[in-house]
Specification:
mainly alpha, three-stranded parallel β-sheet, 3 strands
């Protein structure tokens, strides 16, 4: 599939000069995304949410540590039954902390999807609009993380036009 896209892009780029217009445009989506104020707000909100979860987890871990220290300090005076009960209670606390961390991670991922989707849609709409205005048939993502464009001397760089469209 990637090879088919590369061949299609190559054909489009070689046909463009013959038609007198640039049919292929490119944009570094990753670079543009991190510059968007909306994206920065999303990242700040996610970091704040993550900090809350981390603080709660630290409190829970401190409670667990305190319980473990109490068990160790009283090991010589408590009965075996009391020690086993305390160990079970500490194991349950540990399991609860692990479950909390997994749930927190899932909640953060859901929140990220919820918050980032409108930003990505806004970016895609701006790219679509600029491509239509510039009569570009194909827009390739030149982001290094995507690896779709390995050479971008030709074609039309849409970065500045999309920034204008986004009001940046």
């Amino acid at each position: 599939m990637k090879n088919a896209l590369k061949v299609l892009a190559l054909v489009a780029m070689t046909a463009a000069p013959a038609l007198g217009q640039s049919l292929v445009g490119h944009i570094n989506v990753d670079s543009l995304l991190v510059e968007m104020p909306d994206y920065k707000k999303v990242m700040e909100a996610l970091q704040a949410e993550q900090a809350k979860f981390e603080n709660e987890a630290k409190e829970m871990n401190a409670e667990l540590e305190k319980g473990a220290q109490t068990l160790q300090a009283n090991a010589g005076t408590w009965t075996e039954l009391r020690q086993r009960q305390e160990q079970q209670r500490l194991q349950e606390m540990y399991n609860n902390i692990q479950q909390y961390m997994q749930s927190a991670q899932q909640e953060l991922q859901s929140k990220e999807i919820e918050l980032i989707t409108p930003v990505l849609e806004k970016l895609q709409n701006a790219i679509d609009a600029v491509a239509a205005e510039k009569n570009v048939a194909y827009v390739l993502d030149a982001s290094q993380s995507k690896g779709m464009v390995i050479y971008a001397k030709g074609g039309m760089n849409l970065m500045s036009a999309v920034k204008v469209k986004l009001g940046m």
